[in-house]
Write a structure and sequence with these properties.
heterotetramer; A mainly alpha (323); B alpha/beta (325); C alpha/beta (329); D mainly alpha (296); B: 325 residues; alpha/beta; Rossmann fold; eight-stranded mixed β-sheet; four-stranded antiparallel β-sheet; 12 strands; globular; C: 329 residues
Amino acid sequence: MKMRGYVLRKLGQTVLTIFVVLVFNFFLFRIMPGNPVRILIRNPKISAEALQRITEQFGLNQSKFVQFGYYLRDLFTGDLGHSFVYRKPVLDVIMEKLPPTLLLTGTATILSIIIGVILGVIFAWKRGSKLDVAGLSLSLVLYSMPSFWVGILMVMLFAVYWPIFPIGGMSVPGTYYATIWSQLGSLLRHMLLPTVTFALILIGEYVLIMRNSLLEVMSEDYMLTARAKGVSNRNLLRRHALPNAMLPMVTLIAMNLGFIVGGAIQVETVFSWPGLGRLMYTALMGRDYPLLQGIFLFVTVCVVGANFCADLLYRYLDPRVKS
Amino acid sequence: MTLLEVNDLTTYYKLKEGRVRACEGVSLRLEKGEALGLVGESASGKTTVALSLIKLLPENASIAGGSIKLDGKELVTAAEEEMRKIRWKEISIIFQGAMNALNPVRTVGDQIAETLKIHDKLTDREAWQRTRALFEKVEIDPDRVREYPHEFSGGMRQRAMIAMAIACNPRLVIGDEPTTALDVMVQAQVLQLLQQLREEIEMGLILITHDLSVVGETCDKVAVMYAGQIAEYGPTEEVFTRPAHPYTRALIAAFPDIEGERALASSIPGNPPNLLYPPPGCRFHERCSEAKPLCREAQPRTININNHHYASCHLLDRQVKSCRA
Amino acid sequence: MQSLVSVDQLEVHFAVRTGFMQSMFGKETPVVRAVDGVSFELGKGEILCLAGESGSGKTTTGKAILRLVEPTGGKVLYEGEDVRSYNRLRLRAFRQEAQIIFQDPYESLNPRQTVFSTVAEPLEVNNLCRSLAEKEERVAQALVDAGLHNPRELFLRYPHELSGGQRQRLAIAGALVLDPKFIVADEPVSMLDLSIRAGILKLMVDLRDKKGIGYLFITHDLSLAWLVSDRIAIMYLGKIVELGSADKVIKEPLHPYTRALVSVIPTPRRKVITQQSLLKGETPDPVNVPAGCRFHPRCPEAKPRCREAVPLYREVRPGHFAACHLLDS
Amino acid sequence: MLQTQTRKDRFTLLKKNLSTFWGVYRENTMGIAGLVILLFFALMALVGPHLVTYTGEIEGAEMVLQPPSAAHWLGTDDLGRDVFAGVVVGSRISLLVGLAATVISMVIGAIIGIAAGYYGKTVDTILMRFTDIFLVIPWLPLMLVMAALLGPSLGNIIFVIGITGWAGTARIIRSQTLSIKERPYVERARAIGSGDLHIMVHHILPNVFPLIFANTILVAAVAILSETTLSFLGMGDPTRMSWGVMLHFAFEMGAVSFGAWWWLIPPGVCVVLVVLGFTFIGYALDEVLNPKLRRR
């Protein structure tokens, strides 16, 4: 019963958030001075019928409320508009570019969480040692680097200076792969550099948070109790400290989803990875507003949804959270 | 038979500013099944003594000297691996705030069963069975073993801590302010429970508290600590009826007694010294109404007043007196 | 004795905060009945003690009288005027005469305010001083009154540079500077070591003797209550169960709850606790108050009637009030 | 906070507070390192642009994309401009954008945080819902969309970074305000007749201030990173050289495949150092102002 109330409340918040994002998006692209629709109409070269079509599509001759209604109707029917650059429905373009992004970000995120948690635990356990100090400094430096710049360094080092890996992309254009294995191998070779870059960007923060969170937990009274009980170091960590220390990590991972999207834009741009992030850069450069708006909405809704899931997970992990 | 013998225990904390002499030259003796009260005001070093006994001091603290013998076995030099076996099996401890002393994300029963599995090598089933029995012993509904600490009331959490402390039938239980945060009635219940358990299983008890009445209620012997040192030590009745040290006397006088006269006692002037820079001579001399010039210069010896009753005060020292005469 | 504060059927109920969704779906919000019909009178220069366990509503009662918590029912008369009817201006004037001292001297002083600012603040807020010299004089006097000698040396110190006892004296000075007639003292010594408690208590009693300040002394410690107060009121779950002179309540308690509490008053010299039968259980949550007499589930002498009817709070003996069915023979 | 009697006392007190603070801060190696780094860059931004010449004129084809030499310490770019001079000139814009955006973020964050925490109830619920929404919206896409719609200019980029960066601050300050509001000294202030404004100014603000200060430093680090990233992605003002704009041109002109490391690395290193400097100071302040952490 309590659980249901909690889920309902969180769901309500999520829906509210998405609604606000929709309104915000509408405001941004339709109402703000210099908004793309107005720019579209002002275009002197625009044909009369095109103007007519646009006016009808956006309900421009009607009140703002009606326009908002048109906008919502379009959204719910999956009509995110038409891309100027690709000359295709925006949703189709997004769906096409989604799998490479999921592949890259998913791999990098999982990798960075695993490595980050392990390193954080090691540093916390050996706090004050040379290893800890070195690890901490490196994490701080990684955390301070612009993500795209890490990518540029990686490309310069491993694709230009020592050309071990391809400079970018997901495959060599125009190549025919004889077997699925050779195709997979090529994919892996293309993927390695961006994945490592992406993971490096994320690891710094995970290490820092995991280390601090674990140190905090280790200074708690119940850890003293556990030590007094004669619990072995291994179990002290595994069964007493980690379950508590992982809680802030869950929050952080959820909070970081937005950051991951930001990382994807930068890494994909640097490595010409054919995903959503690079698509956004293309849309920005080409001032392809419908596409830009579509990506922004799509990505935001995904992140908000993922946050909702993280909230539920947190509730499951921490028995103290009451509804 | 002597269960625990502490001689000249000295523990220092290292801070940037210097050494905090939190516990210096502490000597105690506990017979089997006996209860000893360790009384002192805040920052008098009582908790440091407790943590030294099980060697769970914070990283910046270390035992600088003295010996701790449990059944004749030296603990100060014992290796961590050895201590781990001794902890809880031989010496267990009840901490002050039971809310923080229990792991919030694991069930209470799980935390008790864990100790049984570690030390008594019980199977999962046996451990949970014992846990339920322990719950009954401390008067908690055994069906609540699967609940989390936050679902328990303050009194129940302290009972659960006690259940955990006696789980492996240790020979010595250290209670660090076990009743402090509790309401009077619950405090009484917990004290009564401790007393019952002590009669049932023959365990030694070291009760650390700032509350004289708790000691009077449960302990055979009492040690009064002041500024990291033991001021007076002896049988509870003897110390409370014929306190020898001026500090003990002032402390007892300050305790309101509803059967005594209805008048406010005078308080002890001043504050306890900063243990980074303890005063020379007797550490109490700055607040002592009877201090003599000598008290400012020399540390007092421990004087045996009579049978097992000791105090460290120049005023009791016959040698000092005779020198004067 | 002339009445300074008179409390009549005071009620403070809090709504338990529930989520937006719950309140939208019209679920009934549970109510915490922190104070539920409390009545007493406090004379000028009297020390009345409100004693009880945590959750009994004693602190809330004290704060409700000063309107630091808004009462939801009943009356509070201060020198014959209803405090609840005060407008902002009148409330401000009232608060110059009625002060509060808190339990924790470490928390009740702003760590970023110097000793001078702490004590001068009440004067500044109420625009009571015309010149700096006058302000300094009054601050210094208040500090001396609170037992802090050489006050001018302390002016620029911060609270963390003082000892626990000094801090509580500073807090008292902050209350004294306005020359109050009434002080709510909420567990003023429970955080202090035994050896410095007596000094603070003595100071408070002396101030009563010298300046005629009336105190509502809130504590969980009955022996302390007995030592300092003229009369004692025992609270249980938001209601006063017994009220009488300090000696009568402690030495000849009427209510079974008071008897139980008195029986566990600690004393260093005798074993009293471990050799008797105690009340079972703990004070229940004030959200689910038991029907009938609130104490009946834990009362060793409860009769069937106690489960049904709320006992009348009445004067059982001259000046000695109690609410218990067993006393209505 | 400093309502102590005379000006002389006020001065004594200020001196005492500062020396106490400095006494603890001085012990912190990280904090000192951060301070030294930032002082260096502050000096570069203030004085540097007057000492170097950075003209957009082509110096001749042979001077294009030259590796470092005695004449050009950090080589030249595709237009033959001196990279070192660019880095020096760019420092001014990068720091300016970062600091200005930080001020916007902190003012919004502090006001919303204190208001929500102090007034509680409905005000809190509405403000925090709003803050949470800002927290979950992916931050870079939001900035990019806004920057794209507003067009590339210095003012716009400051506005975009400032307006998107306050949510975390507001949350932290709110929770601190909530905890301070419950302290007895605030209740005591009410008991002596103080009004809301007095309490906020004299009791809440002085106690939240250390946190606002420490947080400002960390927000500044993020703002500098944001400026670099936005400019790199082409949202910067191309006429005002900053480290991010420099990296944008370098990347777009193919410096990566050309191997012109001297064009790509120096501006990046500067960004990393400045961000590190801020982060160091932030960590140090956290440790100095939060005694619980000090023992670690």
